[in-house]
Design goal:
four-stranded mixed β-sheet; 168 residues; alpha/beta; 14% strand
């Protein structure tokens, strides 16, 4: 992806995986014009940024690229030359869904394809510890969505993305 070795070392793993997912999603559409492609990414945790700052208190050239949610969609747009909107969505647990819904609305309004993605990686244990301490995680580790016995949620990690465009 044209990233220098030093930048790759500093890059949040979520950004690395999102680049790969964006590349895969857009390969099938290469025949079409993707210059106006919008990028919408749902993320909520920046664990790697905190980890990299803690391990290297001296500011590194590329450290800022891992410390903001806006950097992930911006990196995708920049890397692939996409000129549409580049939007990060942080709505907690619904970040990925919000990115997809927003991207779909934008695609319909602008009649241009969009890339929608979501990412959450469990990089450091402290985030789960803090969430558990706040009483937000299900004590038994089982998710019971929309059930009367629901008593918290279960953290998981995934990265996914899709290209949304009008059917021909």
């Amino acid at each position: 992806f044209g990233v220098s070795l030093n930048e790759a070392r500093a890059m949040d793993p979520q950004q690395r995986i999102l680049l790969h997912v964006a590349w895969e999603a857009t390969q099938a559409a290469r025949a079409g014009d993707l210059k106006a492609l919008g990028v919408f990414v749902g993320m909520q945790h920046l664990e790697y940024g905190g980890l990299s700052y803690a391990s290297n208190p001296t500011p590194a050239t590329f450290a800022v690229l891992t410390s903001s949610l806006s950097m992930a969609p911006g990196r995708i747009s920049y890397t692939f030359g996409f000129g549409g909107p580049s939007v990060s969505c942080d709505t907690a647990c619904s970040s990925s869904l919000t990115a997809v819904v927003t991207a779909k609305a934008m695609a319909e309004e602008r009649r241009n394809p969009v890339f929608a993605a979501g990412s959450d990686l469990l990089i450091v244990p402290q985030t789960s510890v803090y969430i558990q301490t706040a009483g937000m995680l299900a004590p038994d580790g089982r998710c019971k969505t929309l059930d009367a016995s629901a008593d918290g949620y279960v953290r998981a990690e995934a990265v996914c993305g899709m290209l949304l465009q009008e059917a021909a």
